[in-house]
Every structure is written in C-alpha cells, then in structure tokens.
Amino acid sequence: MKVALAKQMHDIDKSAVEEYGLPELSLMESAGHRVFLAMKNLLGNVARKSICILAGSGNNGGDALAAARYLANDGARVKIFLTGNRDHRTASLNVQMRILRGMGIELQQLDSDRAWERLQVMLRFSDAVIDGILGTGFSGQLRPAALRLIRLVNAAKKLTVAIDIPSGVEADTGAVGEAAMNADVTVALGLPKVGHYICPGASHVGKLIVDNIGLPADLLGDEIHQTLVDDELALTFLPARPRDAHKGTCGKILIVAGSRGMTGAASLAAMSALKVGAGLVTLATPESLNAIYEAKLTEVITAPLDEVKSGIIGGDKAAEKIFDLAQSADAILIGPGLGRARETQSLVKRIVTEIDKPLILDADAIYPFNGAADELKACKQIPILTPHLGELSALLNIPVEKLRPAIVPEVRRAAQEFRAVIVAKCETTVIGYPNGEIFISPLGNSAMASAGVGDVLAGAIAGLMKQTPFAPLTGVWLHGTAGNFAAEDFAEGLTANDVMNRLPAAMKKLRGIGYKNS
C-alpha cells in the first residue's frame, strides 16, 4: 500500500473528479459511510447513542456531515457543531448542510458563548465524537477556535473517530503544535498519510483504518514514492528456500563487532543472522574477548583480531585479517558494540572504502562518518546503514528536533546523496533507497526500546543478504513482527534476546506456515 503526502492526495482527489468524472459528492458519500461504519463498530450499536459531530468548513467537514446523516438514519441522536469561516465553506459541504436541514437536523455554528456552552453540555452527555474539523490540509499553528475545540474534546475523554487525520496533526510530518485531537480510531481516506506513522502525530491516531472510498486504483500507485511495509508486501520479499540448499548457498556472513564491555551486541547480531536463515556466520572480534564468544556462541565461527589495546581492534594486522575473511563472505556487518576508539574508526573507514562486498554499517561503524557522510560515496557497493534517530542526527548534522518532522524527506535526500540504503529506526522505521523510494514500517512497539534490539535488526538484515535482494525490508518486517510476538509474552519486560528468539516464528508467519505461540 502506498503512503501519500497531503499534496499527492489532493492531486489524486482532483484527478478523480476532473479526469475520471467521479463526482466529489460521491467520494464524500463513500467517506461518510465508512466513518459511520467505524463509529458503529466502535460503539457496537449507534441506535439511541448521542454522538457529537464537529465539522470544519472544508470537505473534511462535509465528510463528517455525511456520516451524521448515516448515523441519524440508523437511530443515533446527532448534535452537529460547525466551526471555521462561513465564507470558506466548500460547495459539497453546503450540499450536505442542506440535506441535513431538510431532515430537520439542527446545525449549530460555534460563533457565540451560548453555542460553546451548548457544546460543553453535549460533550458531557455524548457517547462519542466525530472529528471533521481540519483534515490533511492543516499545517502550522491552530487557530484559536480550533485549539479551543480540540482541548474541549480531549478533556471530555469521549470515544473519538477522526476523519482522515486527527485535527492538529500535520499530514506530511506527524508534527503537532499546541494540541491535536486524541482519536480512538482514524479513518484514512484514499491512502494513509506519512503523519499517521510519525510521532508525535502517530500517538494521536489510535486504530488506523484505511479505505480507498472508491477512488480509481490507477491513481493510487506509480506516482507515489512512499510505500507501507505491510504483510501483503512482505510476502513478496523472501523466495522459497531450494530443496538442495546448503550452508554455503544460504549466506556466509562476516560480522566485525564487539569490544570490552560490549560483548552482548556482537552476540545478538551474530545469532540473529543465524535465526533468519544464514548458512554460516563468522564473528571477527578482539582477540582478548574471543574466549567469551567461543563459550557463548556454539553455532558461530569466531575469528580473533589483533588489538591496539585490550578489547579494542585496529591497525594493519586486524585489517589484513578482516580483508582475508571478507574474500569468502557474501556480506559484511560492521559495528555492533565495536567501540569508538580512534584506531577502530580508522579501521572501519578502511573496510568501507577498500572491500568490494555488500556492507551493513550499524552503530559504531556509522560514527566515523558523522559530519562527513559524503565519504560514504567511496564505498565500492551501495552500503546499508541502520542508524537510530540520534545516530542519523549526528551523521547528517541535523538536530533531532528538526530531523524527526522531516524524517521522510531527509532519509530520501541522504539515501540519494550518499548512495546508500538508510534504515532509520524510531517509533516507525523509515527505509530510503538511492532511487528516491521510501518504505515505511509501522511494525514493532514501544517495549522494543531496550538495549540490543537494534543489534538484532542489524544481524537479521545481514543474515538475509544472500537470501533476498530485499534484505533491508525483509529484516525490518521480521524484526518488527518478532518484537510484537515478544511483547505479547513479556510486555515492557522484553529483552533483545526475546526479540531474537522470535525471529524464526516471524519467518514462519512470512512463509505462511502459521505461528503458534509457545
């Protein structure tokens, strides 16, 4: 499924009307009916329920009024409050108003103290609210009336269905100013929007329902370069494993990782590569730590590297050993728990610029390029970078508070400019490719905010490099799915090991074998 920007969705709606001859009112009717169904599902039954309808002056408000009619016809007691400039009401909104007045349903304009008092009383006794105030056209600051309205509804704590996007959330960024509607359900019209998945806006969305409202399918495809990593797409990622597969054909992965005090990161990455089906994993790590890994990792080959000091790799001898190991590797992961010593950073840069193999750079292997991301162009193959938001902020020299609302365009720009695949990890994973394509994965949960979970993702991507050309996307899907499985069992108490150990269950789900939690 594609994920739209606000202008893209506006252009799609316009093309549906002007090029396909689909009446705007027809789209509004479809939207209104879908919102009605969402409210009915939320309440179980709308008959004799009091529902407060809040409608702005645009077509988002018209959708709310269409929903109000369906609700009234099904026995709900609807109270409609209008906000926004009367002179800016759209033609389709005015049609919906005339229909409701013809049905004898009152529409109250919020233009007096008395009207606001009536709204407050209605909110106190209502069963639910429909938010049709602003929609996807909003950006910047809320006007005083809209801000007051949103705060009133949020304070009332009623079940709320938002139309398209909660009022106060920017559709392209997920940014929220002074306030945004707290929705229990959001009905996205046509396509989901970027702001549905990026916080803080994503925390206001509640359950997201997407309905194409009858838009021609041709309009919802090729010209949009953001795609949702959902189950349907994931099924195309991983080819069936051949019957004659052996460890040599399933991926020989070299992992350069670990330092004193950070042995766990390397272990998690190495085992995660095996858990997603890699045939053979070699862990190259500081010589003084090698005995730890030999005892801990029975299925992983270990390769001790020369140290510049205890637990820290660097220098020519370590480089020569890595170059030798790389010759037989299908892919190389560098970085988990590697440390940031000056000699280690120099070694990382040598590996990145001199080895002609697929590379995955994680954590401490990204650090040497902070403020110098241009040097990544020296890679002989397109590298895969797996930064969290703080690491990406340092790499691009953009403060986190400015990067978050611009995560999609910045990941796209960085991937194109530095010829890299960027797997940006935050509450939603945003994957950017050098051709400008962006993939957005909402999988995973807040319980995964735990040490080592990122090392599991890096290892999973590395382990998939020989198995599929879509290793970053497949790894993200498996990682998020495994994290959701782990959260079912452990909630906020999950650890990186819990996520890693559920990667095979995620693989089973992906292959359609089914999953039985044990």
Distance between the termini: 32 Å
How does the overall form come out from the CA principal axes?
elongated
CATH topology of the largest domain: UDP-N-acetylmuramoyl-L-alanine:D-glutamate ligase
The first-level CATH class name of the largest domain: Alpha Beta
Biggest sheet, spatial arrangement of strands: 8-19-18-17-16-15-14-9-10-11
- How many domain regions? 2
Q: Cα-atom Rg, whole angstroms?
A: 26 Å
* Overall SS class: alpha/beta
Q: Assembly state here?
A: single chain
User: How much helix, percentage-wise, in residues?
Assistant: 25-40%
Biggest beta sheet attributes? 10 strands, mixed
DSSP strand tally: 19
**Percent strand:** 15-25%
Model regions low in confidence, pLDDT < 50 over at least 5 residues: 514-518
Task: Give the full name of the CATH homologous superfamily of the largest domain.
Answer: Ribokinase
Gross CATH architecture of the largest domain: 3-Layer(aba) Sandwich
Number of helices: 18
